[in-house]
Design brief:
The protein is of the alpha/beta class and 276 residues long. Helices cover 36% and strands 25% of the residues. It has 2 domains: 129 residues, 3-Layer(aba) Sandwich (D-Maltodextrin-Binding Protein, domain 2), CATH 3.40.190.10; 96 residues, Periplasmic binding protein-like II (D-Maltodextrin-Binding Protein, domain 2, 3-Layer(aba) Sandwich). Strands 1, 2, 3, 4, 5, 6, 7, 8, 9 and 10 form a 10-stranded mixed beta sheet that branches. Helix 2 packs across helix 9.
């Protein structure tokens, strides 16, 4: 109804055949929308599911943090979902490649779960409080005594890294022998076969992979301490007019989870380290 129109109080009942036609049209429209979303169609960052507003979240398949193969989509997704539920929102996840995640998130079509901050992203997004920290460092062959504390010692070693992944300052030395692979698990297998001396990656992700392959786990260790810890966040595009309201609501839910201990219990149950 247009703003200047008034509603008639003398309504004629809708004939039964017309009711059936309207119902059929509504069902077709709903089915079309669901199919479009399943094929990657764009949904608004904030819509409605039932009686609760729904928040669309873009996320990568990165166990043990988030994955459609994990219970409740993974502990970080579960954490974010519970925080939103406490303030009256439901969360809809879409798993997709990282390049698409950044594009969808930047345009305000979804929130981004599990993002790291950098100067370029800080121009585009506002963030939640840190959700968890990802420790980055080296995996080594069991019993190895490799020296990894400076660039000079690292230049003598073959270091497996993921193609296109983030590298800390220590690994940006052009004199290093970097062996590129498509994924961390490929480098772990090369490490076990002595094709490289070190495999760089996220501690929790590597240990999760090793736990799935006991023979590999028996030959590889995490080298403590790590090189760097990266906090991960829920990001809100500054192009989304509802971003600040969503961020404020999420913070309220997350604060409540920390206050009653459920934040700590959830992460510890998943083998992850809660933040203070």
């Amino acid at each position: 109804m247009l703003p200047n129109q008034t509603r008639s109080t003398n309504l004629t009942p809708c004939p039964p055949y017309r009711q059936r036609l309207l119902l059929a049209a509504a069902l077709v429209a709903a089915a079309w929308g669901t199919a479009a979303l399943a094929k990657g169609g764009v949904a608004p960052a904030n819509s409605q599911v039932g009686s609760q507003p729904a928040v669309r979240v873009c996320v990568g398949d990165f166990p043990p943090y988030n994955s459609p193969r994990l219970p409740r989509m993974g502990p970080i997704f579960d954490l974010a979902q519970q925080a939103f539920q406490r303030v009256g929102y439901t969360m809809q996840a879409e798993f997709m490649p990282w390049a698409r995640i950044l594009k969808e998130g930047e345009e305000g079509r979804c929130l981004i779960l599990g993002i790291w901050r950098n100067a370029a992203r800080d121009q585009l997004f506002d963030y939640s409080s840190p959700l968890v920290e990802q420790e980055l460092g080296f995996f080594v062959k069991r019993g190895s005594q490799q020296m990894t504390h400076n660039a000079e010692s690292l230049r003598r070693l073959r270091i497996g890294v993921e193609r296109g992944s983030y590298l800390p300052e220590l690994l940006r030395d052009p004199g290093l022998q970097l062996d590129l692979a498509s994924a961390l698990n490929s480098n772990l297998r090369k490490l076990a076969k002595d094709r490289i001396d070190l495999a760089f990656g996220a501690k929790d992700a590597g240990l999760y992979m090793l736990a799935k392959e006991p023979e590999l786990r028996a030959r590889i260790d995490w080298l403590a301490p790590g090189l760097e810890s990266k906090p991960t966040y829920l990001a809100f595009s500054r192009r989304d007019p509802q971003a600040e309201a969503l961020r404020s609501a999420f913070e309220q839910g997350l604060t409540a989870m920390k206050a009653d201990g459920s934040y700590r219990r959830l992460l510890k149950a998943a083998g992850l380290s809660p933040l203070p």
